[in-house]
Amino acid sequence: MTPALSIRQPWAWLIVNGHKDIENRDWPTNFRGRLLVHAGQTMARRYYDDTCEELLRMGLLPAGVPAYEDMPRGGFVGWTHVIDCRQDHPSPWKQDGSHGFVLRDSSPIPFVPFKGRLGFFNVPKETVTP
């Protein structure tokens, strides 16, 4: 089995394309290792627009972010490695009060439709080949 984590867009895209190095959660994890990044199905247009506007204001919106209509949702979009979980971290992506899953060596893959779940979940290895 392969571990996976569902992340709302545009955050999933930012992670797998090497821009975002922290995933903020309200719960800690002891998990360390490689995992599939699942782009959650839910993404309201207003949420996307507000998020991009805030990232632009903060100087964190990279060029090439797909338009709302082109942002893949409801499936796997890439790989990352969780190397730590910290409440204090210098990354500009770290939110105060959250548990930051520190990420490294992220990479996109061709979209693979798959129903996500809350928290970490396992999928058969043959679902996505590295």
Q: What is the secondary structure topology, with strand pairs?
A:
Elements: E1 2-7, H1 11-16, E2 22-25, E3 33-39, H2 45-58, E4 75-86, E5 99-113, E6 120-123
Parallel strand pairs: 1-3
Antiparallel strand pairs: 1-6, 2-5, 3-4, 4-5
Word description of this protein:
- By secondary structure, the chain is an alpha+beta fold.
- The protein has a single domain (2-114), classed as Roll (Archaeosine Trna-guanine Transglycosylase, Chain: A, domain 4).
- The chain has helices spanning 11-16, 45-58; strands at residues 2-7, 22-25, 33-39, 75-86, 99-113, 120-123.
- The chain has a 6-stranded mixed β-sheet with strand order 2-5-4-3-1-6.
- The protein is globular.
- The mean pLDDT is 95.
